[in-house]
Amino acid sequence: MKSLKTFTIGGVHPEENKRSANAPIQQLSFPKQAIVPLGQNLGAPSKPIVKRGDEIKTGQLIAKGESFISANLHSPFTGKVLKIDDLLDSSGYRRPAVVIEVGDDVWEEGIDTSAALKREISDDKQSIIDKIKANGIVGLGGATFPTHVKLMVPDGKKAEFLIINGVECEPYLTSDHRLMLEKGEEMLIGIKILMKALSVDQAIVGIENNKADAIKHLTELAQKYEGISIQPLKVKYPQGGEKQLIKAAVNREVPSGKLPIEVGCVVTNVGTAFAVYEAVQKNKPLIERVVTVTGKAVRKPSNFMVRVGTPVQMLLDAAEGLPENTGKMINGGPMMGKAIMSAEVPVVKGTSGILLMKKEESRRKTPQTCIRCSKCTTVCPMGLEPFLLAKMSRLERYEESEKERIMDCIECGSCQFTCPSHLPLLDYLRLGKQRVGQLIRSRK
Amino acid sequence: MMNQFTISGSPHVHGEESVSKVMYTVVLALVPAVLVSSYFFGLDAVRVLLIAVLSCLFFEWAIQKYIIKGPITITDGSAVVAGLLLAFNVPANLPWWILVIGALVTIGIAKMSFGGLGKNPFNPALVGRVFMLISFPVQMTSWPVAKPLFADAVTDAVTGPTALGLLKEGIDAGKTVEQILSDPNMPAYLDRLTGNMSGSLGEMSAIALLLGGLFMIWRKVIDWQVPFSIIFTVFAFAGIFHLIDPTYYIDPTFHLFTGGLMLGAIYMATDMVSSPMTITGKWIYGIGIGLITIIIRLWGAYPEGISFAILIMNAFVPLINNSFKPRRFGVKAVSK
User: Are residues B105 and B229 part of one domain?
Assistant: First the structure.
């Protein structure tokens, strides 16, 4: 095996708790009624093209991504559009969503639903990007950035490396891990497709060393795929941060405020590579994904293949129910995930896991005074001074926090995780980022 | 019906570190040195340690309760650490009332008047120590001779000069290093290492202090850069002068194992609150302390200089924090 690589500044080691690592992906059954939010991608929400009462098929386009940064949205189920209304989503706001009464599963024509592996890539560069765009593929690592936009390299820039994120550094989550084990070959074909779209001849799949089985499996498979190498990485959070992964894989630093393409890299998640395979080889839109259901008290930690729009409650039921003493429900992992208010909210393209925290784990401890121990500064993977930025937010001195590079913060939470005084550092940093963002926009 | 779940921002887990864990780790790291000083000074050491710790706790409690009228936080361990370090910086035979005054200065002036834990610009125990040294110079510099438990009394003298004191006196009287080292009061090499000599309570045994220091580095309570840069600077600077003129400048290891250097470098200068926040800053701060210490030791009026050196560099910490920022990711881009 290759020697382990990692990033150089900061980082923490939260308990891994990958309880569902050995649970194979199971197909989840369908709900009676699905809620499909229109804003499932980063950027502008999709514009609906169906109306109340329409009969729709699985995989049919129901909303279009019209702005530059937006994505198409397809129906995950066959059935009838009950309404288009503002409904509670995982962010806690009421936002527009298509509500579907689910019937028997009938796929739209032209979609290959067979499991047969299709290795040969017949599409050319433009046709690959068109298919990815048409099928509504977004980054499945959590940020849900439209993938076709990522593939359109700006003039004057050149992609040299495609970096595939199989790090899954968030504790508890195992959806990417299971996908690498179970859909490895499809994923590698997806990577080849992306390489073709970007005209790069090197792809590096970064995987944390706590997934030795996935590293071994993919390394074996990758021998048949020229240009794809598997890079084992040290277990250190936030190894899966885009900038940290690039640093580890090719030892380049994305300049402050710039995108990975600046250093010749394009980064996508392993789940996205699988979705790309399905979109290009099978013409299948992104309507389902792998979701981990886990937590210390969860009776049956699981990985499910879930159709978008399925209420979280169904996942909980399939994992043998909501544990009695659940105090917090998180969409995503414990370091960067978002707390959700209700199990009624639907799974969306960006849902990588549902994490249930016990009551005693859910409450923050009372903050104490800063003892200037500088641990936050030591662990910050961006080389920032969280204690200082937090203080500037508190004093509303946003011009100064802009100079101290608050916009470089990737919100990984390492500072707050490590703070002995239990200070809500990241809360203050988020506030600061939001205000500094307003300042920057107001100057334009 | 909506379930009542907690909603809060990420991260949702915590590394379980806490202020009191940090403080009690420091206390634990001081245990070897406490044992060594109790061995050499017996009940006197225990008396001084108890008075210092209890007075520090009392003053912090009294100030929080009656002056600030705020929450009482004496259980966080910071007052215990201040008390222990204060005791470590005085002779074992110091009258109790001086110690109590020292504790009042430590907690009342150096810590609480700035707003308590986390706010003090200067190391509280050192402020207390220097206050006592200037106000009660006689009592603060009459050092009891170490008398190991179970050992026969080796000398009738109750107090004796410290190794550094002997050196300073000798040099001032025009003696050579060789003559000074042959003085019968001068502790032998091994005694200097284990702490069998006159001096403040906690500065005796370099080995015990180093042991505690390694423990704190392992537990990530302190960074190694501060103690290392101080010790290295003192060693290098003393070494250069020793090479130039060995008749008047003693060999650099003497400086490492005598006086308060180890105590200061490992426990006092590393005080989180009053030391810099970045690694570069820690280097600058440590080198500064080392330089000032050795300048005072070689040419100053006092035989010992680390307390002053640390307090002087404490004053520079805000400036250091502003001038030496961490290496920002992606600012000086590294490319192949």
Answer: no
> E-assigned strands of A322-373?
326-331, 338-340, 353-358
Task: Kindly state whether residues B53 and B133 are assigned to the same domain.
Answer: yes
Task: Measure in Å the smallest separation between the Cα of B54 and chain A Cα atoms.
Answer: 22
Same domain, B314 and B165: yes
d(CA B234, CA B259): 12
The residue written with tokens 């490590």 in the block is A418
Q: What pLDDT does residue B319 have?
A: 96
| pLDDT recorded at residue B172 | 82
Q: Which helix (H) or strand (E) holds A62?
A: strand A61-64
Residue B34 tokens, joined: 């406490």
Task: For residues B42 and A46, give the distance between their C-alpha atoms in angstroms, rounded to a whole number.
Answer: 79
Rounded Cα distance, B68 and B116, in Å: 10
* Structural domains of chain A sorted by starting position, each given as residue range(s) with its CATH number in brackets: 1-29+113-363 (3.40.50.11540), 375-443 (no CATH)
Write the CA distances from A360 to A325, A326, B281, integer angstroms: 9, 9, 39
Q: Which long-range contacts (CB under 8 A, 24 or more apart) does B232-240 make?
A: B232/B290, B233/B286, B233/B287, B233/B289, B233/B290, B233/B291, B233/B294, B234/B261, B234/B290, B234/B293, B234/B294, B237/B290, B237/B291, B237/B294, B238/B294, B238/B297, B238/B298
Domain match, B109 and B245 both: no
A341 contacts in B (CB within 8 Å)? 2, 5, 7
Are the beta carbons of B336 and A250 separated by less than 8 Å?
yes
Residues B103 and B226 in one domain: no
pLDDT tens sequence across A275-308: 999 999 999 999 999 999 999 999 999 999 999 9
Number of domains in chain B: 2
Same domain? B191 vs B318: yes
User: Which of B3, B8, B335 has its CB closest to that of A364?
Assistant: B8
First-to-final CA distance of chain A: 50
Q: What is the mean pLDDT of residues B309-334?
A: 89
**pLDDT beyond 60 at B157:** no
Domain around B96: 19-140
Q: Which two tokens stand for residue A98?
A: 């298509």
Smallest CA–CA distance, residue B5 to chain A, in Å, is 5
Q: Are residues B183 and B296 in the same domain?
A: yes
Instruction: Describe chain B by its helix, strand, coil percentages, rounded to 5.
Output: 60, 0, 40
Task: Tell how strand A25-27 and strand A302-307 pair up.
Answer: parallel
Q: Looking at this predicted complex, what is its ipTM?
A: 0.90
Strand partners, A208: A233
Listed in sequence order, the residues at least 6 apart from B151 whose beta carbon sits closer than 8 Å to its beta carbon are: none
Instruction: Say if CB B214 and CB B49 are below 8 A apart.
Output: no
Backbone φ/ψ region at B150: left (φ over 0), alpha (ψ -120 to 50), beta: left
- For Cα atoms A20, A279, A96, give the angle at the middle one, nearest 5 degrees: 75
Q: What count of other Cβ atoms lies within 10 Å of the Cβ of residue B134?
A: 9
Minimal-distance CA residue of chain B relative to A344: B2
A79 forms beta bridges with A56, A102
